[in-house]
Design goal:
homotrimer, 243 residues, alpha/beta, UDP-N-acetylmuramoyl-L-alanine:D-glutamate ligase, seven-stranded mixed sheet
């Protein structure tokens, strides 16, 4: 939650972190977008998450789901599948998480780490997008974003991000901030957020000596990014546009 | 909570973070001061907060309230107003939070960010201090501290602190540590804590490249501060002393 | 939890952080080791902790207990004593925590900070190890590890680690990762984890300007450690081998 909040602040957004059912009706309509992350899910938090998703949709605000370790337990998978029903604008996970959601089945693994490459998850992502109407993003060596038909690849980023906890969660939060700006281009906003985070990590990596200094330089770089730095580095490709 | 604890450790204090009602009676009397922060408030935590405030007062220990986003929901405002009744020695918030408490009304805003300047909140702060007997501190471009009669301004600090999550929470925790040392000078201790944190941020800023490196240098600077560095940099002004 | 996870990632392990009773039966058997930390204990978490310990033991996986502030309240002491019954492979605490567990008595103190040196706790550690069958490690100026009979001292580390929150928690998590590799040498694995963390802190300290930069360099150094760096620096002594 700390890294997610600092990612959003560095990018110019204004995060607030809430857990409580009681304040969702007052608070959620004021937000421009909602991010739900099931990382440390507990049974008590789930009703608040569902209500927040519901209030966001009724308020015309997009919401983004991070189905952390969706396939790691039946409890977690069921919760994620219930959230998927509540019309997220974007779902972002690693390959294993997206496959678990798409197949609605528990995928034994080591937990939050993906045992699938993002390209392996392409068909699962397309199916999930078609079934839910959400944009689906799969993080990996190349990040993939799809609406179920179009598929784009976002190529920026560094491998060492996997050695820092919550970088996946943080890019999901950044997607929420980007999607808030223009709801008519959700796929583009999602790819842009992944790319901007990836570019910031590349700039950060050039100054880093390990995961902890990368974490620091990543946030500093995200704060200092200008349009030229992004444009000169960003690499987004179209995988296919037919169906 | 992480940044709050590291702030306290760097300043030479000894933090402990507790959530549970069951251990308040044993634990709270051992503390020299208590800090209650409603940042990620949940209904289940509120009884423990109230009991801790009560035990602190009965033990003759000062306690400090950080009414994070007090005006953002009816639930949160009600909780903060109930806590305010329990005799905090200090209340520290941003302008919007202090106005919400003083007017006992929800203030729609973006959440934890203040939409009011600290000077706008001056009258609200004085009224809140008079009504509660607490020292009230309002963070802003200039921090203001008042007992309802005297008003001092603490001028140290850097704008980039607003790009780091939990810096407000952390300075509130530091106020608790300062107030613990000498309960007969709570206004002075509060202004001193704000100033010391501000000076550490200024020294840190001279080495920082962005919010994340500022966060690191801030804590390092707080740990390394000596009396001369503080005295040569600190700027506290008296706004008015009449009433 | 953040520093614990980043410690494990930097050391090449794969952490997952769970709170919920409902997913323990699915998830815990997949882990190679379990770490239970009572830092911010709440009554609601305790049943999940107990079930996780039970599932780990039945799955033949080692589990490690960090009895944070065990002697600070009756509630916390009772919880820790109940966990100790569930066959931890390792218990790691500071002197005050180990004495509280060994004597099963509340030890008034300032909380998480030890008011006892690790050598003072030697007899308590040996008694606790004999009573429970666990390896017991006591952090201090010299870390002590015992099976109740053999005692070794791990001498690496720097004093400034005490100015960073969760470094004790993090070394306990690292012990869990080391113990997972070879369950037939739990004492050696525990001493090795303490030494490796200590060596990383020494290398980090040579680049640090204070607690926050030490925290960063510690994690970077842990990630970059090679066998030669460890072997050339590590200092483990045998205190006694008779009994």
């Amino acid at each position: 939650m700390d890294l997610m909040a600092n990612t959003l602040l560095s990018a110019g957004a204004s995060p607030a972190m809430l857990h409580t059912l009681e304040e969702i009706p007052d608070f959620t309509p004021l937000a421009h977008a909602l991010c739900l992350n099931v990382g440390t899910l507990s049974a008590a938090w789930l009703p608040a998450m569902k209500l927040a998703a519901d209030v966001a949709v009724r308020s015309g605000k997009p919401w983004v789901l991070d189905p952390v370790a969706a396939g790691a337990s039946g409890f977690r998978l069921k919760a994620c599948l219930e959230l998927v029903e509540l019309k997220p604008a974007v779902i972002r996970g690693n390959g294993s998480e997206i496959i678990a959601l798409s197949k609605a089945s528990v995928q034994p693994s080591k937990g939050v780490d993906s045992s699938h490459d993002s390209t392996d998850a392409l068909e699962a992502a397309k199916a999930l997008a078609q079934a839910t109407g959400a944009i689906v993003a799969v993080s990996g060596a190349v990040d993939i974003v799809t609406d179920g038909n179009r598929v784009v690849g976002a190529h920026n980023g560094v491998a060492m991000l996997q050695k820092i906890t919550a970088t996946g969660c943080s890019v999901t939060a950044l997607i929420a901030a980007f999607v808030a700006v223009d709801q008519s281009h959700t796929l583009e906003a999602t790819a842009a957020a992944l790319s901007v985070f990836g570019v910031a990590s590349e700039i950060g990596m050039s100054m880093a000596n390990g995961p902890a200094s990368l974490r620091m330089h990543l946030i500093d770089s995200l704060h200092g990014l200008d349009e030229n730095a992004v444009i000169s580095r960003v690499k987004i490709t179209s995988f296919c546009e037919e169906k």
